[in-house]
Amino acid sequence: MDTIVHVSSNGSTAMRLSLRYKFILPFILFTVVLTVTFGVIAIQRLTYELRVQYERQGEQLALHTAGELLEEQVLNLGPNNSLDLLARNLVVGEVIYLQIVLNGQVLAQQSRYLVDLPLVTTPARVVVYHLHTPSNGSPYLDLIHPLNHPLGILSRLGLVVTPEVKRRLQGGVDGYIRLGISLKRMEVEINRGSLLLAALSLGLMILSILVGWGLYRMILGPVERLSEAMREFGAGNSRARAWVDSGDEIESLANEFNAMANSIVHQRDALRQTTDELERANQAKTIFLATMSHELRTPLHSILGYASLLLDEINVKLNKAGQQYAGAIQRSGKHLLVLIGNLLEFSKLEAGAERLHLTEQRAAQIVAEVVENQRPLAEEKGLRVEVEVESSLTLRTDETKLKQVLLNLLNNAIKYTSKGSVNIVAKASEGFAYFSVTDTGPGIEPEIRAQLFEPFTRAKDSAGPSVGLGLAVSKGYVELLGGRLSFESITGQGSRFWFRLPRGGPEDETADR
């Protein structure tokens, strides 16, 4: 699982981190924050401790020098000119300069870097400045130790303070000791400590990465493998499985997923086998219907031919009863021929063998032929057939199939209507040709409306013999012609079936262009 780019519906992208990075990055960030915080605190503490140490060292040197100054210049207990020697001896190592001032006069001064040391006002207490040399920018301490408490200085040095000394020093002393102490070694120590802390931080970061990676492999690795297997299985890889041996709930979840995947694959294979068997059975049924329909037409045409010869009394003389019987044979044969034709047309539709033969047609002519074909049936039942057709309406379509659809709809309307009228409409509608057939019959039962266009579906009070294929064939033809057959029905008031076809012809690869 790497970084994922998610594209939203508005086109914007958002980065999503995988569990690997979500798990390891917090370890790294926590370690960085911890080490940086600890490092900053440690460096600050080290700097403070070293500075305090250097300040104390400088104060001790200044205190010692002040004692020497008091013994020589105030108490006259030491040899003369010993301060110059003291200054030379002290300005070594980290002491870069020493200045001794008494009553506004410089008694001794020594400097290694020729630092200009102007006189300053004697402070009330010890003052320490952190400065940098102008030559190389090295840091140093500038410490000024006042002599305004000589008795305290002598006491801190452990010298015996006699009453005579107290009397002589009662008025105090005006002067100070000024020391410069280099902090270069402290700077080196701080840099060394910083490098050590940086190395320690780097080591902790590497350790945190290793610990995070180990925990990821131990905890989230199985989750990642399970997620990857689920994603592959969802993408269609039926062999994808999650192999997890973590010994915990994740392994149990992976085993459940594997069992579920095996069950799905087994059910899918069984369903595929069942589907194949159903398709073969359906194909066999279609072939059987097409074969039987074709084979039944030949003897049926012979029956109709002989019935016609009997009615025309060719080579035979029939009485009135015989003519009635011959007429019944002819009518029943014609109806049977229609039923066989519907079976043949339905089998062709199911087999996908129907092809369109598109030509430019006048809607008025097609409707007129369909109405003329069904007029005897309507007159026999005393129904009015009302026609509303735009005379200029033309469309590119398959004449035979459009005529068959209108013929089926009109035949059904007349068949199920006992009184009133049947209305057939054909008109232009926004680049389409609109057709509808409306009757004043009893309407369609609500319980069969959802399956009305399914094959072999018939109304309960169907008039006359039928196999329930007329609407199924009509629906298939309308869809081939680029439209959709719909209906509405009100119980006790009638039904209306309608469809519209593109006037320029259907966009269908089966059409003969």
Question: Could you characterize what this model shows?
Answer:
- Helix 1 (19-74) crosses helix 3.
- Strand 11 and strand 12 form a beta hairpin.
- A five-stranded antiparallel β-sheet has the order 4-3-7-6-5. A five-stranded mixed β-sheet has the order 9-11-12-14-13, covered by helices on one side.
- It has helices at residues 19-74, 82-90, 150-157, 163-168, 184-234, 249-311, 320-351, 363-381, 399-415, 470-480, and strands spanning 4-7, 13-16, 95-102, 105-111, 127-132, 139-146, 175-182, 356-362, 384-389, 394-398, 421-429, 432-439, 486-490, 494-502, 511-512.
- Helix content is 53%, strand content 19%.
- The chain has 513 residues and is α+β, with helices and mostly antiparallel strands.
Please specify the SSE layout and strand pairing.
Elements: E1 4-7, E2 13-16, H1 19-74, H2 82-90, E3 95-102, E4 105-111, E5 127-132, E6 139-146, H3 150-157, H4 163-168, E7 175-182, H5 184-234, H6 249-311, H7 320-351, E8 356-362, H8 363-381, E9 384-389, E10 394-398, H9 399-415, E11 421-429, E12 432-439, H10 470-480, E13 486-490, E14 494-502, E15 511-512
Parallel strand pairs: 8-15, 9-11
Antiparallel strand pairs: 1-2, 3-4, 3-7, 5-6, 6-7, 8-10, 11-12, 12-14, 13-14
